[in-house]
Amino acid sequence: MTNKKWAVLLVLISIPLSYYGFSNFEEGASEPLQAILISLACTGGVSCLIGGIYMLFKKGRGEDLLASQTKVGISPIQKTINKPSKKVNEMTEAKDNVDSIKTLDEYNEKMKKLFKREDELKTRKKEVTKLDKEIDNETTEVPK
Predict the structure, then answer these.
(1) How many CB atoms lie within 10 A of CB 37?
(2) If phi over 0 gives left and psi between -120 and 50 gives alpha, with beta otherwise, what is residue 84?
(3) Given a cut of 90, is residue 125 above it in pLDDT?
(4) At residue 97, what are phi and psi to the nearest 5 degrees?
(5) pTM of the full predicted structure?
(6) DSSP letter assigned to residue 68
(7) Packing angle between helix 3-25 and helix 32-57, nearest 10 degrees?
């Protein structure tokens, strides 16, 4: 079935659902199951109506293409899916960073410097936390 037929079918289904739901809505329900059915009928009727109207005016995917107009191979849908991404630029930037280090010895030296700096920062952090604790202890001891 085409989209137009489905749209008409949805609109036709929405008419009795909406009628049942909204005509019984004002009267109220005597049982919980009936209340659930009335709410589902109202919701389903409105949903089918909106969906049917939307489908009437929206063109479906590939609806305007005939089988004779398509080529065997990559479809127009696959062409849009398989677009190249921008990750290629990120990869070239990473490659440039690697190329800036010319030898393995230079790389090892840079890594050693980084590890030393990291160790220095860890010891300074320990000192700062120790001083912070001392300050907290002294401020709690001083009467206000």
Answers:
(1) 15
(2) beta
(3) yes
(4) -65, -40
(5) 0.42
(6) G
(7) 150
